[in-house]
Write a structure and sequence with these properties.
This protein has a 7-stranded mixed beta sheet. The protein has about 150 residues and is an alpha+beta fold. It has 6 helices and 9 strands; from the N terminus they run E-E-H-E-H-H-E-H-E-H-E-E-E-E-H. A hairpin with a 4-residue loop joins strand 1 and strand 2.
């Protein structure tokens, strides 16, 4: 697993609209990478809906939520449209799970991302990492704790 103080691994993925997103293009922003095992699965759907509800929490910490899943960009587009998610979901479809693996958030036995969240500061440095078991959703309190790790958040 990545540790606090590590540099976030570089990547180049497409979002649910087919637009390229790189770590470099996100530099200068606070980020919360949310690895999601599979689109349309029960726990992932509830987590995505909770992230939508928690947008004020992320906005107050000036942090952009970015989901990452091994699903295709087409599945991710349908999923975000159905839920009305206002943030980007990145497709780590091919090579399958390569970016999740770089972030130590890939389960090679199941071929899915793990339920891992990583807060990254404006310089690309990890400030918080947390995970839950595959059968347990991450909570708003977990995100609030992670967001408190940014330097000027109280």
């Amino acid at each position: 697993m990545l540790s606090v103080g590590d540099a976030a691994p570089v990547f180049d993925l497409v979002d649910q609209h087919g637009r390229s997103v790189t770590l470099e293009s996100l530099r200068g922003r606070r980020l919360m990478f949310v690895f999601l095992p599979l689109a349309f699965s029960g726990i992932c759907a509830s987590e995505l809906e909770q992230l939508v509800e928690d947008q004020p929490l992320f906005a107050s910490a000036r942090t952009e939520v970015i989901g990452i899943s091994v699903d295709s960009m087409f599945a991710l587009r349908t999923w975000t449209d159905a839920i009305g998610a206002p943030f980007r979901l990145l497709s780590d479809f091919w090579p399958h799970g390569a970016v999740a693996d770089r972030f130590h958030a890939f389960d090679a036995e199941t071929g899915r991302a793990t339920r891992t969240s990583i807060a990254i500061d404006e310089r690309g440095t990890v400030v918080s990492v947390f995970s839950t078991p595959a059968d347990r959703a991450r909570t708003t309190a977990m995100y609030a704790q992670a967001l408190s790790m940014f330097e000027d958040v109280e």
